[in-house]
Amino acid sequence: MEQIAFVTGADRGLGQALTVGLLERGWRVFAGQYIADWPQLDELAVRFPQSLHIVPLDVSSIESVRAAAQSVSEMVDHVDLLISNAGIGGGRAEFREGLDYEAMHRTYNVNSLGAVRLVESFLPLTDRGSMKRLCFVSSEVGSIALSVRQGAFGYCMSKTALNMAVRIMFNHLYPEGYTFRLYQPGWMRSYMGGEKGTMGDMEPEESAAQALPLFLNDRDDEGRLAMIDYLGAEWPF
C-alpha cells in the first residue's frame, strides 16, 4: 500500500522540513498550505511533481479543514500519517504589560482546536490507513510540571490544552489501533513570530531530522503516551 502523509503548516519552518524529509523517503505527501503566496512549497512541487500535493488549509476554520479532507479523499483512499504542526505564537506579555485576550483566543483556536479539527475531519481517511499514526508538535511551554514562565499566557496555555486533547484522543483511538507521537521540537530559528527568527538553538531542518525517526518508527511502549524532545528525552506534561 502506498504510504501517504498529511502535514499541516507545511509552508515553511518545521512543517516544510518534515515535508521534505518524507518526500525524500518516498512518501506521498499532502501539504497543508496557509500562506498562498509563499513560494517554497511551489518550488518543492517542481522537485516532486508526482508525490507532493499542496492543499489550502486554515486549521482555525472547520470549513477549511473539512474542505482539505474532502480534497485529499478525492485523490486517495487513505492516509497513514497525520502530522499536526501548524501553530502560531501568542505574545509574551505579563500581567502589568497588558494582556491581549483576543490574541489568546486566536492562539488557542489554532494551536489547540486546530489539532482536534484535523483529526476529526481526517478520521475516515486515517481509519483506512495501514499505519494509523497521529503526530503532534507540542512544546516544553505546555508542561505544567516544568513551567517557569511569568507571561506568554496564550501560547503556553494553548500547548497545555493541546497535550490534553492528544491524551483524550489517545484514550479513544489507541484501542482502535492508532499510535501517537507528541513531539517537543526545541528552540528553533523559525517563523513563529511572522519572520524568520535569528535566535534559537537550531534550524527547523535539524529538529525535523530528529522528529522523523520518532514519527515513522514503532516504539516498544506504544500503549503509553509520552512527550519526546529532539534529543530523545521524555518530558512530563
SSE arrangement:
Layout: E1 4-7, H1 13-24, E2 28-33, H2 40-47, E3 52-56, H3 62-73, E4 81-84, H4 101-111, H5 113-126, E5 133-137, H6 153-173, E6 179-184, H7 204-216, E7 227-229, E8 234-235
Parallel strand pairs: 1-2, 1-4, 2-3, 4-5, 5-6, 6-7
Antiparallel strand pairs: 7-8
Helix pairs in contact: 1-7, 3-5, 4-6
Keywords:
alpha/beta, 237 residues, globular, Rossmann fold
Note down, in words, how this protein is organized.
Helices cover 38% and strands 15% of the residues. The mean pLDDT is 94. Strand 1 (4-7), helix 1 and strand 2 (28-33) form a beta-alpha-beta unit. It is globular. It has an eight-stranded mixed beta sheet with strand order 3-2-1-4-5-6-7-8, with helices on both faces. It has 237 residues and is of the alpha/beta class.
Q: What's the CATH H-level homologous superfamily?
A: NAD(P)-binding Rossmann-like Domain
- Distance from first to last alpha carbon: 35 Å
- Overall 3D geometry? globular
Q: What characterizes the major β-sheet?
A: 8 strands, mixed
**How helix-rich are the residues, as a percent range?**
25-40%
Spatially, the strands of the biggest sheet line up as 3-2-1-4-5-6-7-8
Give a short synopsis of this structure.
By secondary structure, the chain is an alpha/beta fold.
